[in-house]
Amino acid sequence: MRSTCLKAPRGEAESIRKKLLAEGLLDISLRIRREGDHILFPVLSDKASILGYELVDADLDERELMSSDYRTHMDADEEVKERLPSAFDVIGDVAIIRLEDDLTKLASSVGEALMRTFPRLRTVALDKGVKGELRVRDLQVVAGESDTETVHIEYGVRLIIDPAKVYFNPRLSNERYRVASLVREGETVVDMFAGAGPFSIMIAKHASPEVVYAMDLNHDAVEYLIRNVQLNKVRNVVPLEGDARQLIFDVPCADRIIMNLPHSARDFFHDALTRLKMGGVIHFYTICERDDIEPILDRLVTEARGMGVKITVIRSEELKTYSPSMSVFSADIGLVDWC
Fold first, then answer.
1. What CA–CA distance (Å, rounded) separates 175 from 160?
2. Threshold 0.90, pTM exceeds
3. For the chain, how long is the longest CA-to-CA vector?
4. How many CB atoms lie within 10 A of CB 294?
5. Reading across the β-sheet that carries 33-35, which strands appear in turn?
């Protein structure tokens, strides 16, 4: 079938595909085609040109569309199916599901239905909540292979991750790319809760910082971080194992600090602000009731004033739902002046 296509370099294919999907511009009824060193993406509108690549006409094969609702493959009452999750996290080829307590007996059936619906999945695991001081997921494999280590790809960054050992949120890929796009050449960046390195390596790959100090208390996370630095061949990421509250005073003051620890980042804000250069930015993440985000940010402004500095909230955004009444929020906070 003849179609308008976005012609993009092969090396950027995955990030372009995700952007087109996010904008609702990818025509999923046609197959993507490789043409030499370029990839042809069928698009639904000329608006795809905003990504900065050439639009061309090409003949593409049609593909059969399969239902993406795994629940159609389950033998269960409709009332039960309606209570099963319609969304789930996918990290590499590992799917992670959450079920209400009285539905956990169906976990294996859900896992098998997911693998039947999405053949690329290798493993399905039930998320039983977070455990311990390091807040890693308590995962129970319910279908597929028992090994939960996988390779996750986002915006050209390859990350080796075991979600049973290191907390990782695949839904923040756009946020990580957004932050990387803000980093100016020569910046010193501190990633206080780096995990396996998604923020740090994204910045090193897509920006030109002088150095990124990537810290984490979790030994397993730092081991994966080191592997991911090597895998992505970035030379300006420095992995550091230990308590970020102490480590941040062992490295130079930063132009930019990332505080991706939504449950308790507020407890570290004073230390981070102490080590931020004038004119620098903190990327702050928190989980709270939706009506509480403005008061929380106002309290941070007041706390900073008590430290003798003036900060401003450059932007804030609700990133994703955490519970019926709570969400994960991000805020870009700038240090602008002395009081």
1. 19
2. no
3. 65
4. 12
5. 33-35, 38-42, 2-9, 54-59
